[in-house]
Amino acid sequence: MTIEVTRGVMAALMREAEKMAPEECCGILLGQRGRIDEARPAANVHPEPLTRFEIDPSALIAAHRAARAGGREVLGYFHSHPEGHPVPSATDCVHASGDNRAWAIVAAQEVRFWRDGDTGFEALSYTVVDG
C-alpha cells in the first residue's frame, strides 16, 4: 500500500522537528482516503521530552471528534528522534497499538513513514504530491 503525502506536510514535519529540538516533537497526521494533507502539531506531554513523547490526549480526542463530525480522518501520528534515526525505536515498538495507522518519524533531516500493524512496524511506501 502506498499513501500520498503533500509537500506542505513534509515541510511542516521538518519545521516542527527543527523547532522543537532538542525535545521530540509529536502530532497527528490528518487527511482523507490515504492522502495526508495536514500535520497537526500537539504538545509533547511526556515527562522526559528529550527522549520520549506522548501526544497530548486532549489533541487526540479533539481530532477524533472532528473526524466523526465529518472532518479530516486521523490517518496517523508523527514524532521526531532528534538524536536518532527515522526508524521506530525499541520504545516506539513497545508502545505500538497495532491500529494500522501511519507513523511519520523525522530524524537527521529525513522523514520516513511506517505502518503500525498487527506484527509491529512495517515500512510504508509513500508518494509526495502537490497540495
End-to-end distance, in Å? Answer: 20 Å
Domain count, please report it.
1
Order of H and E elements: EHEEHEHEEEE
> Averaging pLDDT over every residue, what do you get?
95
Describe this structure in words.
By secondary structure, this protein is of the alpha/beta class. It has a single domain, classed as Cytidine Deaminase, domain 2 (3-Layer(aba) Sandwich), CATH 3.40.140. It has helices spanning 7-20, 57-68, 90-94, and strands at 2-6, 26-32, 35-42, 73-80, 102-107, 110-117, 120-123, 125-129. The protein has an 8-stranded mixed β-sheet. A hairpin with a 2-residue loop joins strand 5 and strand 6 (110-117). The chain is globular, with a radius of gyration of 13 Å.
Describe the secondary-structure layout.
Blueprint: E1 2-6, H1 7-20, E2 26-32, E3 35-42, H2 57-68, E4 73-80, H3 90-94, E5 102-107, E6 110-117, E7 120-123, E8 125-129
Describe what is shown at a glance.
By secondary structure, the protein is an alpha/beta fold.
Which tags fit this structure?
131 residues; alpha/beta; Cytidine Deaminase, domain 2; eight-stranded mixed β-sheet; 3 helices
